[in-house]
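Hypothesis: this fold can be encoded by more than one sequence.
Test: take the structure tokens below, design a sequence, compare later.
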């Protein structure tokens, strides 16, 4: 009979299960934030407001849309990552690094719950 307590004491037997409840809540909260934020919704209303006739007005409008699009693409990326993270929670693979398969540290997950990779793989990407 093997003694299981020994590995717990040595600190090597890190559990591979993450308590996802906390992260799921954080992800859903962020998702709601993004949906409610100005970043995702003003495109449509801005399009409706843009006038075709006046050139000066039009140029200004394009500039605003451009800025909104830039914000939007960042939000959309985060949104995508959040959706994927929620899927991983469902599948039970949440918290596992996409690149090396190691567990992502809880501290990192708390900072960025939608992250796909661990800190060392993130560093390698740079
Ligand atoms: Zn990794």
């Amino acid at each position: 009979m093997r003694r299981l307590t020994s590995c717990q004491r040595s600190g090597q037997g890190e559990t591979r299960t993450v308590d996802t409840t906390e992260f799921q809540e954080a992800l859903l909260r962020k998702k709601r934030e993004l949906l409610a934020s100005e970043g995702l919704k003003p495109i449509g209303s801005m399009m409706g407001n843009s006038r075709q006739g006046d050139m000066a007005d039009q140029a200004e409008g394009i500039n605003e849309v451009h800025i909104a699009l830039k914000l939007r693409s960042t939000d959309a990326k985060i949104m995508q990552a959040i959706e994927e993270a929620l899927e991983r929670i469902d599948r039970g693979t949440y918290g596992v690094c996409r690149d090396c398969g190691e567990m992502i540290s809880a501290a990192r997950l708390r900072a960025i719950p939608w992250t796909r990779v661990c800190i060392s793989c993130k560093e390698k990407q740079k």
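The chain has one domain: 19-125. The two ends are 47 Å apart (CA to CA).
Hypothesis status: open.
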